[in-house]
């Protein structure tokens, strides 16, 4: 059986918190920001949790997290 490996693209995008939840960054804040309101950009600033329906996929991509 081959060695289990972490998907490095997932490891760079997600962080596992001590409680087991996974933290991710917000989308839609990299470019074309002039047409977005200040409120929208401010709300996109912080990190958020990964939804429970996607947790299985992330667990497969990061088996050691």
TrEMBL record:
<keyword id="KW-0689">Ribosomal protein</keyword>
<dbReference type="Pfam" id="PF01632">
    <property type="entry name" value="Ribosomal_L35p"/>
</dbReference>
<dbReference type="GO" id="GO:0022625">
    <property type="term" value="C:cytosolic large ribosomal subunit"/>
</dbReference>
<dbReference type="InterPro" id="IPR037229">
    <property type="entry name" value="Ribosomal_bL35_sf"/>
</dbReference>
<dbReference type="GO" id="GO:0006412">
    <property type="term" value="P:translation"/>
</dbReference>
<keyword id="KW-0687">Ribonucleoprotein</keyword>
<feature type="compositionally biased region" description="Basic residues">
    <location>
        <begin position="1"/>
        <end position="16"/>
    </location>
</feature>
<feature type="region of interest" description="Disordered">
    <location>
        <begin position="1"/>
        <end position="20"/>
    </location>
</feature>
<dbReference type="InterPro" id="IPR001706">
    <property type="entry name" value="Ribosomal_bL35"/>
</dbReference>
<dbReference type="GO" id="GO:0003735">
    <property type="term" value="F:structural constituent of ribosome"/>
</dbReference>
<dbReference type="InterPro" id="IPR021137">
    <property type="entry name" value="Ribosomal_bL35-like"/>
</dbReference>
<dbReference type="InterPro" id="IPR018265">
    <property type="entry name" value="Ribosomal_bL35_CS"/>
</dbReference>
<comment type="similarity">
    <text>Belongs to the bacterial ribosomal protein bL35 family.</text>
</comment>
<protein>
    <recommendedName>
        <fullName>Large ribosomal subunit protein bL35</fullName>
    </recommendedName>
</protein>
């Amino acid at each position: 059986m081959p060695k289990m490996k972490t998907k490095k693209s997932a490891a760079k995008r997600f962080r596992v918190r001590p409680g087991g939840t996974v933290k991710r960054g917000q989308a839609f804040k990299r470019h074309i920001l002039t047409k977005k309101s200040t409120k929208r950009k401010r709300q996109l600033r912080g990190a958020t949790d990964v939804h429970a329906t996607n947790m299985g996929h992330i667990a497969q991509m990061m088996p050691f997290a």
